[in-house]
Q: What sequence folds into this?
């Protein structure tokens, strides 16, 4: 041990609070931690790689002919819808991983360190961006290989994926909230699935024209944020009227984050 | 005195369990306080309160004058924590773990790299630095955990049973580091189940039982209270146990404890010279000893003396002699 030893604080007065910039930095470091964990265990991305492929194949070939007359025509309609569905499904693990993580010893270390209380939580949501990018990349690549084509312009496509990331963030916060409240990772999985199914299927994800659905379901579809998400992405990818759907979609993103982010933080402070 | 770690009247209840029932602690700069007690005594709870992980129900605690409840942010900048359950990220490598901690303490690139490198060197982890922690042995993980707690060169360090489960070699390494830290001026609070560890490292020892400090003082003071060491002798021929017991009694002027099941005779002794005297006496009597040793009292024996009851360990019972040494 060098002479500049203990008592790092000899003469250095500790800070009263942790500034916003430091807090952001801490969040980034912990996001780096999550990403680096993935680097060491890339097989954990397996589900994110397989899901888009499996879902595309399943829906395209099972429903394609029946819904749109041909699989090719359906592919155009389906893929943007799957962007929405994949965004929802890949956000689920944020909660399960968080649930496991807070029970680990390393979390005690974080809590005894002068880092922003929110940092581990923020870190896990930010770090999960990798899953989003991988799943979107696989979806688009596989879809293109099967014949999907974007028919709009690059700006619109960018906007579509920016919206998708916005929704991804909002779903991650919901997932994190569930992860903080649930007792075990298994519970998170179960709960998330129960929520994700009616949300993603009871929408325009698989079927752009929802007029064939019974009126009670149409009512649900009209309220379901995923419908606006899927419709907007569809319009931005293959053309079509957007109307106020984009605005409503954005409002949903903002609304969900405004509600769940502070809620997740509050639960986190109490739980951890 | 310049007290770095201080606590008064700490009380904490978890549901029905009273984990701490009024604990006082004082650790000046450059000294080691050994908190000795069995599982469930409240040692870990006390450490967690001081490390700002848990709030006490009653009482106050402070580090360098900053209250652990109201000034937790400041306290966290002054402490290091290392525990029985190594708190490092299993997926990351040793180097990545330390870099992460350095960055979280606000160190920039070069400084972080240097600090991580020097800590890895100091703890003999330089070779394994590029491997995932999940490939490390228990001793290596514990060393990494200790290294992580030293990143910020804290003024106060809490070590919660840092050598439990380590082999003697690894344990000695940890002890060396603790001594160096104390010499540098760090205040160290060490919890342990091993009297030997407290004896070797601690300037002051506090014995805790059921959330209370039942005895405190230097190692010498406590040993004076409980009797220095324990003499253990077991003859090869079990039938000779009674003879051995008489010999021991005559040499020590005390009533030895005889375990009929194992044939072990134990007695507390203050003078280590008794061992040599006993060897000569057994030789005269023609008795061969299968086991003959002078040992530190076990934690159980310490408790028995101090409290009149055993320390509630699974193989402990009043009046039973040492079994398998100090690992209570």
A:
């Amino acid at each position: 041990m060098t002479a500049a030893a203990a008592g790092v604080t000899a003469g250095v007065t500790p800070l009263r609070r942790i500034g916003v910039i430091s807090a952001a930095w801490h969040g980034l470091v912990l996001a780096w931690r999550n990403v680096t964990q993935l680097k060491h265990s890339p097989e954990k991305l397996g589900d994110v790689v397989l899901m888009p492929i499996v879902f595309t194949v399943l829906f395209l070939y099972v429903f394609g002919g029946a819904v749109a007359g041909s699989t090719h025509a359906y592919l155009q309609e389906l893929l943007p819808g799957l962007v929405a569905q994949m965004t929802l499904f890949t956000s689920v693990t944020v909660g399960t991983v968080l649930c496991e993580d807070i029970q680990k010893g390393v979390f005690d270390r974080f809590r005894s360190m002068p880092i922003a209380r929110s940092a581990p939580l923020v870190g896990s949501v930010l770090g999960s961006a990798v899953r989003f990018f991988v799943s979107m990349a696989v979806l688009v690549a596989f879809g293109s290989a099967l014949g999907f084509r974007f028919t709009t312009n690059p700006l619109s496509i960018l906007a579509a994926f920016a919206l998708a990331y916005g929704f991804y963030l909002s779903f991650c916060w919901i997932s994190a909230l569930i992860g903080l409240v649930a007792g075990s990772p298994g519970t998170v999985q179960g709960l998330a699935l129960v929520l994700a199914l009616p949300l993603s299927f009871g929408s325009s994800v698989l079927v752009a024209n929802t007029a064939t659905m019974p009126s009670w379901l149409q009512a649900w579809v009209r309220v379901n944020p995923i419908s606006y998400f899927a419709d907007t992405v569809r319009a931005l990818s293959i053309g079509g009227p957007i109307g106020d759907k984009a605005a409503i979609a954005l409002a949903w993103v903002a609304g969900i984050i405004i509600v769940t982010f502070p809620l997740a933080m509050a639960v986190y402070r109490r739980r951890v | 005195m310049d007290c770095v770690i201080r606590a008064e009247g700490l009380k904490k209840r978890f549901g029905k369990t009273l984990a701490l029932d009024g604990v006082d602690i004082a650790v000046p700069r450059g000294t080691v306080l050994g908190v000795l007690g069995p599982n469930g005594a409240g040692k870990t709870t006390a450490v967690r309160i001081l490390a700002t992980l848990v709030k006490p129900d009653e009482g106050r605690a402070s580090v360098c004058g900053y209250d652990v409840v109201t000034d937790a942010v400041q306290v966290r900048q002054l402490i290091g924590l290392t525990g029985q359950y190594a708190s490092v990220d299993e997926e990351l490598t040793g180097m990545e773990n330390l870099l992460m901690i350095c960055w979280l303490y606000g160190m920039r690139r070069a400084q972080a790299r240097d600090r991580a490198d020097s800590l890895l060197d100091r703890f003999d982890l330089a070779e394994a630095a590029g491997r995932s922690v999940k490939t490390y042995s228990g001793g290596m993980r514990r060393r990494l955990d200790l290294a992580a707690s030293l990143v910020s060169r804290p003024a106060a360090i809490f070590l919660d049973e840092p050598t439990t489960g380590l082999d003697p070699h690894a344990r000695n390494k940890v002890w060396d580091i603790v001594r160096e830290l104390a010499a540098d001026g760090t205040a160290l609070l060490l919890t342990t189940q091993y009297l030997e560890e407290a004896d070797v490292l601690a300037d002051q020892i506090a014995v805790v039982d059921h959330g209370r400090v039942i005895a405190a003082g230097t190692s010498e003071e406590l040993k004076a209270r409980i009797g220095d060491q324990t003499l253990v002798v077991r003859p090869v021929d079990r039938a000779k146990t009674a003879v051995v017991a008489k010999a021991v009694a005559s040499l020590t002027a005390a009533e030895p404890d005889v375990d009929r099941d194992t044939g072990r005779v134990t007695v507390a002794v203050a003078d280590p010279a008794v061992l040599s005297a006993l060897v000569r006496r057994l030789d005269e009597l023609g008795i061969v000893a299968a086991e003959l040793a002078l040992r530190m009292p076990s934690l159980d024996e310490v408790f028995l003396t101090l409290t009149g009851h055993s320390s509630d360990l699974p193989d402990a019972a009043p009046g039973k002699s040492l079994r398998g040494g100090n690992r209570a």
Notes: The radius of gyration of chain B is 23 Å.
